[in-house]
Amino acid sequence: MPPIASINLLSRTMNPKSCAILFLSAGTASIPVNADDHKPIDFGKMIISTPLPQSTSNTALPVTVLSGDDLRLKAGSTVGDTLKNELGIHSQSFGPGVGQPVIRGQSGSRAQVLQNGLGSLDASALSPDHANSTEAFWADRIEVLRGPSTLLYGGGAIGGVVNVIDNRIPDKVPERLIEGAAEQRYNFVNEGKTSAFRLDGGKDMFAVHFDGMFRESIPMQIPGLAIDESKEAASHDDHDAEEEVFNSRGRLLNTNSRTYSGTAGFSLIGEKGFIGFSVNYLDNNYGVPPGAHGHHEEEEDGDPEEHGDEGPESVRIDLQQTRYDMKSEIKDPFAFADSLRLRLGYNDYQHAELENGQTGTVYTNRGFDSRVELIQKPWAFFDHGVVGAQTKNSEFEAKGAEAVVPRSDINGYGIFTVQDIHTGPLTFEFGARVEQQFIDADGRKSSSHTPVSGSASALWNVTDQDSVSLSFTRAQRAPDVQELYSDGPHLATQSYDIGNENLIEETAHNLELGFHIDREWAKLDLNLYQNWAQDYIARINTGEEQDHLPVYRAGQRDAQFQGFEAQLTIPLLETHYGSLDTQFFGDYTRGRFTDGSDVPRMPPLRYGMQLGWTHHVWDTNVRITRAEEQDKPGENETETDSYWLLNSTTSYKIAAGETTDFLMFVKANNLLDQTIRHSVSYLRNTAPDAGRAVELGVRVVF
Asked: Residue 55's pLDDT is what?
């Protein structure tokens, strides 16, 4: 299908603002390419999350890869905060202590977060106020997979998969006996201090890894009032009008945090492969903004000094986790195989919700995740292939006032395969996955679901630099435990949640068209996608009330999602003192149920530009982003206003020796000091983003 025809077809379902960006991108994509344009071929970054040998420039899969200094400068306090400015990705914050990634409008189990290919095995998918336990500060790279490649890790990730890859289990012996890095940061917006170190060493067949991180902060500064009182009042019924919420100005109260983490790992490495083990401990204590867990009576309102720094009520999450991992690879295990890979992970997770210092609900999850992959040598008409199996087993339990889900044993099993074919300029890839999920909940009917997923994609290398890709995925997701069995007040989302034991698998059919053009004068990436979701599981407002809370019942509706991601980079100037380039970008997701109503918490149209100056020691950029208002927030949800986001980053690298480098950087965020409320957040009306923020950092690599 020609690019213009594809965009015209998709534009019928979009508003005029999004169409403007699409037609601009389409016009650029249709510019003729001169045969005389020659430049070194950019083979892109290798994709580690896919077992097959692929790079970002020779795959039909939409992939985002952050690594090196780019990752270090974008690193935030959460995975969502780190990725929130990447195309198609937002952060569903519940205060600064929580940042779940939202990929193409999908969150929770539809946007999985992995640690080295294994699940996080925590309670983050259960509620938006539960932080993801995956700590990405010392990640070597973060890869975001969308489309067919997600079948390697689960058919339910219809939004995408975030794989945080680190070196906690070394797979090779370092070049030197000891090497490592140390980093120190300070953020003025919340007096945030981060100290971290990393050590890697080894000799002969033995390699070790150690890392540690400590982070603490006070409540963060915000431009004005924390609560948009008019919209907050509009989101509640008449009886709530008699209640008032303590509203702070200048700071978002109870958002201080204190986190520390440590890892030790080692490996035995030989010519035929390696085997390694690691253990990681995480302790994270963070506050939830006032208003998130309920309203305070009128007599509790007043001046902050009357209530202390924490305001009238303090709800905190005290999280501890101990995680054990094993990773192994055997090269040439059989005549027909290149390698055999095995990964095991066990997580002992718990967190307590502290209300005014007293322990309320306690959540525990003891989970085990394993996967084995056999990478095949060429066979039949397939050039590469992988077959594998995965198991997930967990014991989940919640005790206390908000224990809305019964104690449950959750067991899942899956088998998968991905195969590819190369024929001249064409590459075809096929994938399939079959899973079985069993949930045995105390006092409730057991559930069993069998999701079946498949994919097909094609990549046409029009020239050495240009390509067109087309992919189709049919992905099924089994319902989560909270969607099946919830029954009780959920104060984090201000709702009374009721599950539905009769839920069936939801099925998503995703069609995606991508263009990649790489020339000396321009580089363009454009992805268009359409997703038809059958039996989409949603929290549906029944219009009833229980315990003075609106009742949300888990139900299923058909839905559609469509959108685009576009990025155009143009070099402007190149001198002996460096090079200047500009980048234009935009993304959009539209979600609607087939009855005409809007899917809640969808991101708005977002677009902008960036100017960047690069020198061999200097690197600086200024980035302006415009997010339009979200005037289609979903039933019983409130709209969010548009905003401008102006950010800037500058870094300077010093070579202090043959093996030692210093990187100094300064990051400035929200320089316009705008009040920013995100439509994807449950706390859009009570917890805005941070105000004008400046962060300083220094990193030494030795």
From this structure: 62
